[in-house]
Amino acid sequence: MDNISRGRSACKDAEPSDFPRVLRRVEALRVMTTARGCTPSEADVAARKIGEAVQKYHLLVHPPVSEAQTTSQTFVIAKVLAIGETEKALLCVVNKEEIWVPRSQIATASKVQKEGDYGTLIVTAWYARKAGLSTGRERRS
Asked: Which of 25, 24, 31, 47 lies closest to 105 in space, CA to CA?
C-alpha cells in the first residue's frame, strides 16, 4: 500500500477510518490484470473501480517500484509440453510430471504459451521456487 496515498483534499463523505479499507481494496484491484490471469473484461472493471475510488477519495496512485524487481528474475525449463489449458492456467508436462502453471507466471518470451506448444517454458523465479521447480538455473531477464 506504499504506492497509494491520500491527496490534499479528503472526500467529505469518507470517514478517516474508511481509508485503510479503501487502500486494501484498491491494492487488490491493482493486481487484477490480464498478465496475472484476469480476462480483459475483469481487468477493465478493476481499472474502472480504481478510477472511481481515486476520484471519490482523492487518492494518488503511484506505479509500484518493487514489481519490476520482482518480475525481473526468470526460470527457464527446457523440453516442456503444454497438454491442456484454461483461461488462467496452462497444464504442462515438466520432467514427466503434469503441473498447472498460472498464465500470470509465464514470461512473454516463453516458447510455451498455449496447448500444443513444446519447447522452453520461462516462468518467474518466484513461481519456480513455489512449485519446486527451481534448481539454481535462474537468470536475469
From this structure: 31
0.70 exceeded by the pTM? no
**What is the C-alpha to C-alpha distance for residues 92 and 81, in angstroms, rounded to an integer?**
5
Rounded distance between C-alpha atoms, residue 10 and residue 27, angstroms: 19
Grid coordinates of 27 = 491494492
Distances (CA, A) of 33 to 79, 109, 131: 29, 18, 22
Distance of CA 56 to the CA centre of its chain: 26
pLDDT tens-digit map of 107-140: 888 999 999 999 999 888 888 888 888 754 444 4
- Kindly list the distances between the CA atom of residue 17 and the CA atoms of 20, 23, 102, in Å, as whole numbers in the listed order: 7, 11, 36
For 31-66, b where at least 16 C-beta lie within 10 A, e where not — what string?
ebeeeebbeeeebeebeeebeebbeebebeeeeeee
Phi-psi region for residue 76, left (φ > 0), alpha (ψ -120 to 50) or beta? beta
Higher model confidence: residue 85 or residue 21?
85
Q: Where are the alpha helices (DSSP H) in the chain?
A: 18-30, 40-57, 66-71, 125-130
How far is residue 97's CA from residue 95's CA, in Å, rounded to a whole number?
5
